[in-house]
Amino acid sequence: xxxxxxxxxxxxxxxxxxxxxxxxxxxxxxxxxxxxxxxxxxxxxxxxxxxxxxxxxxxxxxxxxxxxxxxxxxxxxxxxxxxxxxxxxxxxxxxxxxxxxxxxxxxxxxxxxxxxxxxxxxxxxxxxxxxxxxxxxxxxxxxxxxxxxxxxxxxxxxxxxxxxxxxxxxxxxxxxxxxxxxxxxxxxxxxxxxxxxxxxxxxxxxxxxxxxxxxxxxxxxxxxxxxxxxxxxxxxxxxxxxxxxxxxxxxxxxxxxxxxxxxxxxxxxxxxxxxxxxxxxxxxxxxxxxxxxxxxxxxxxxxxxxxxxxxxxxxxxxxxxxxxxxxxxxxxxxxxxxxxxxxxxxxxxxxxxxxxxxxxxxxxxxxxxxxxxxxxxxxxxxxxxxxxxxxxxxxxxxxxxxxxxxxxxxxxxxxxxxxxxxxxxxxxxxxxxxxxxxxxxxxxxxxxxxxxxxxxxxxxxxxxxxxxxxxxxxxxxxxxxxxxxxxxxxxxxxxxxxxxxxxxx
Length: 505
Known about the structure:
Structural class: alpha+beta
């Protein structure tokens, strides 16, 4: 490894920790900056692990055009508390450095916005209540502040939005989260295999299938658990059903925010038919129990395939018909078109992922760039739009829904025609490779969902890290509402539909 700055891995590949190059910080700094100046590269994750006498920092960079992930690291003696910030050179790292600062009290010199991600501290390190977030303060007779939340009128998760406005125009938005912080990453280390699997389904309840796949393939890589190709297809079917259901639900919510009641109720009903199909398959409408490491308790069968096909034929056609009405209705278009724009430059700057990126011409989609499960055998082409506004994010859901329906039908046909092995039962009492690192990435419905883990000398989990796509994209919402009317915030917010609990972990 002499002189090597990084190790290259594929999605869901485990490597020995000793094989990850350890750089001095200046070399690490220069390498990360050079890598992230490439528009097709972005930071999957950057975090810190306490190894007792030292802090180990590991950075995972997605090289989308090469279909590989580059991993490098540096370390800091336990007593040292200061590092030169990379954020001024690569703003997408701002959120990762802020999180490290919050968890380990590392001061990143030169960071322009070293604010809390989930909690605040006094100068002496004393933890403050989440409400102590240091919002931007100002003195002005022309500007005013508008606070929204953290408790909202609807049945939604808590989050505090602080607007600085000139009249009705939003000049600045800060978003304070952390109210849903549950210590999930620490729980993963403490619990057994079955408990971890159940826990991963609750990281973000609307992404149970996506999160379960990320966890399962991470464990399978660390435990050398092979799974049959038929099970890979089944997981992709479950993932695309989840995507279709959530996209329909989001379309309904967008209609609600612009008072288009017909679109709201039709899509609510259609969503119910899709999640009921998932319930028919595994007994749970949100897909809990569907994905397990090493095997399945609910293997696909001909009866379930027939039900999926029938429902998608009816609901898919009805959704397309309704969406065609929604996105041609002048009263809807007047509230969507040109509202809440995120530019391609901004998307690259902040490291946007998922729909937030693809609506701005940035084609980031793990199904293509770092394929997983049966997508390794499937040539997926992402839907990419250009305007980056509410309309683009709505239309993206529409186009992706059509692709999901088509893919599910195609996957069902492939499944029907393949020679299938007996699906193994799930494995919970697994042995993991000692002193190893693994990273698993899935294109969930919001965007890239990243799970990574580190094992100790005995092969036990020593560290588990989850990154929801919302961690990248909350900043996208803050940028999108600038210079918009504050009355447009609800529809902007819904067009991103980011996760509070996924961010807070």
